[in-house]
Amino acid sequence: MNQFVLYQKNALELRLFPHITEVGAVKNSAIRLDGFPCTTADTLKIYYIQDGKFEWIINKRNYTLYPGDVAIIMPGIEFGNENNVLEIGSFYWVHLQMVKAEKWHEACPWSSLSETEIESIRKTLQMNQSPVFKKFQEIGVILKSIQSELTSQEIAYHTRVNHLLDEIFIQSARQFNSLSDTGRNFPGTFMKLEQALRQNLAHQWTVDEMATFTGLCTTLFNERVKNYSGFSPLSYLINIRITEAIKLLKQPNVSLTNIALDVGFYSSQHFSTTFKKLTGYTPSQYRKNYLQKNN
């Protein structure tokens, strides 16, 4: 294992990569006291364990990592060793600066992934309850390749490194979906999707986004949703929007326009037309009837 550590502030190798704040590989042959304090930063951190055993705190929870394990620490999450100790062993890592933005696609201008793809990957990773992936050697191979590209700087190494960073995102999201057993546990996956939809109804969800969230291709996702719910994905989404709108209509001080936008309709007219089609009443008629019955 070739040891190296590059920091954005002083490494010429990173001059073309302002989004990489740190990248390195370390083989630690003795316990280092005061060597790994718990810190919080606005960076996405990826660590791959090559050798040894490491006891780390991630978001106030204890994790033990062994060779082949990967830790993915999201921005703003506390990370380090509880006793500020760096144990014996070796690991690779990369830290990515996530520019403050509403969406990851805006925060990662270097990425060649589409906006839909990278947002779906972000949601998948954030949905993951554990930041540690067991026996995930693929990430180790990618991090070693990044080290090699930065060291050799052969033709097109700039593009190659950025593609490798995208590959980390892709492989991590796929690994999570694989571990969540999407195929055989679709009801559980579907419930997680519905929860995500309800939490962000104002977002203009596409079928491709929803499919990526579940880890399925669009065709299979359409088929699974139809078989499970009896609705197409978009029809199911509209039903959720109407259900949430009904709850809001019971609050007399909330305007119809605000309700329409909050639950994801692009205009009050679109909301009114869809609401009447599914309930037989316009939103204002429904609110009037409800208030009359409950006053």
Write the layout of secondary structure elements.
Elements: E1 4-7, E2 20-28, E3 43-52, E4 54-58, E5 61-65, E6 70-73, E7 79-80, E8 89-97, H1 104-107, H2 115-127, E9 132-133, H3 137-152, H4 157-179, H5 186-199, H6 207-214, H7 218-229, H8 233-249, H9 256-262, H10 268-279, H11 283-293
Antiparallel strand pairs: 1-2, 2-8, 3-6, 3-8, 4-5, 4-7, 6-9
Helix pairs in contact: 2-4, 2-6, 3-4, 6-7, 9-10
Please report the total strand number as a whole number: 9
What is the tally of helical segments? Answer: 11
H/E series, N to C?
Answer: EEEEEEEEHHEHHHHHHHHH
Reported for the largest beta sheet, the result is: 6 strands, antiparallel
Rg over alpha carbons: 24 Å
Through-space gap between termini: 75 Å
Helix content: 40-55%
Please supply descriptive tags for the structure shown above.
295 residues; Arc Repressor Mutant, subunit A; 2 domains; 11 helices; elongated
Account of the protein in words:
- The mean pLDDT is 88.
- It is built from eleven helices and nine strands.
- It is elongated, with a radius of gyration of 24 Å.
- The protein is of the alpha+beta class and 295 residues long.
